[in-house]
Design a protein that fits this description.
The chain is α/β, with parallel strands linked by helices and 291 residues long. Helix content is 52%, strand content 19%. The chain has ten helices and seven strands. It has helices spanning 3-31, 54-75, 78-81, 95-104, 115-128, 164-174, 194-201, 208-217, 229-249, 254-276; strands spanning 85-89, 107-112, 134-138, 150-156, 175-188, 220-227, 279-288. α6 crosses α8, α7 crosses α10 and α9 packs antiparallel against α10 (254-276). The radius of gyration is 18 Å and the shape is globular.
Length: 291
């Protein structure tokens, strides 16, 4: 890699690590107590009632995150494809890794770039009774070592942080011949959403066509697209309602108000984008050719 690009990539990774280190306790408060703590989009079909309490809003969000994983499991035929050696890319606090281990008996290598998350994933896996089946590791997703190690790789709301051409090339070596790559994420529908999305979430959002092209160039063949945008719009209506309710519930200083306002704008952008097609939320599937 060119020295300038390498420095830029390192700086971006350091920014992401710092961002998630700072957010860890807030994620646990909102989506905990676990042991399956998710930090990703969920499926909610209707907007919340204006009278929904803060605890109920949080329960709805957690239930929606579990619902989307069960939906993904059905679409991806997880009982046959996610029951072996699985790489969980950008595992967060391990909710998904624990889900695949508990529900399908997978042996999951849970990769995170956030140092403090490694021990948290291990602790939650132990609480869930699957410590022997969830292996938390600290790696840049583009530098996971090995060849032909995994039957499948899965990335939930994490691929948008990665350079897709480089990442798909690494995955094409990591999964075994015939192995699967599963992606669930937000994708760009119209360019006017790109800058604001990337700025708030510190990502590199891409189009679905870009993903398929990058996978194809890496030797991975795509065969599945499940667009569930309409089922995710009101996840963001619900997070927006929760942010507003939490802000009203306690005294906040000017900095907290500014941060809350920024979050509200970002969550409103997602709600609007999934409603008007400016953003898309979808499940993708790719496969390495069999030997």
């Amino acid at each position: 890699m060119h020295r300038g690009r390498a420095a830029e990539s390192t700086a971006a990774l350091q920014d992401i690590v710092a961002h998630f280190e700072a957010k860890t306790q807030a994620i646990i408060r909102r989506y905990g107590p676990g042991p399956r703590v998710h930090y990703h989009t969920g499926m909610i079909d209707d907007p919340p009632s204006p009278f929904t309490s803060i605890p109920d809003l949080r329960r709805h969000l957690v239930a929606s995150q579990e619902r989307i994983l069960h939906h993904a499991a059905d679409v991806w035929s997880a009982s046959a494809t996610l029951n072996g050696d699985v790489l969980d890319v950008g595992c967060g606090l391990g909710g998904g890794a624990i889900f695949w281990a508990e529900e399908f008996g997978a042996l999951v290598t849970a990769v995170t770039c956030v140092p403090t998350h490694v021990s948290l994933v291990g602790r939650y896996a132990e609480l869930a009774g699957v410590a022997s089946r969830v292996i938390p590791t600290l790696h840049d997703a583009l530098e996971v070592p090995g060849e032909n190690r995994f039957d499948a790789a899965v990335a939930v709301d994490s691929s948008c942080y990665l350079s897709r051409p480089e990442w798909f090339r690494r995955l094409a070596s990591l999964v075994r011949p015939g192995g699967r790559v599963f992606v669930m994420d937000c994708f760009l529908g119209r360019t006017e959403y790109e800058a604001a999305f990337n700025r708030h979430w510190r990502t590199r959002i891409g189009t679905i066509d870009e993903y398929f092209a990058a996978a194809r160039e890496a030797g991975l063949h795509g065969g599945l697209l499940d667009d569930i945008s309409r089922h995710t719009q009101h996840f963001w209506s619900t997070t927006l309602a929760l942010i507003e309710a939490e802000t009203q519930e306690r005294d906040v200083n000017p900095l907290e108000i500014a941060l809350s306002d920024a979050s509200c704008r970002a969550h409103s952008l997602l709600q609007r984008g999934f409603a008007d097609g400016g953003l898309r939320y979808a499940l993708l599937s790719f496969q390495r050719a069999a030997a």
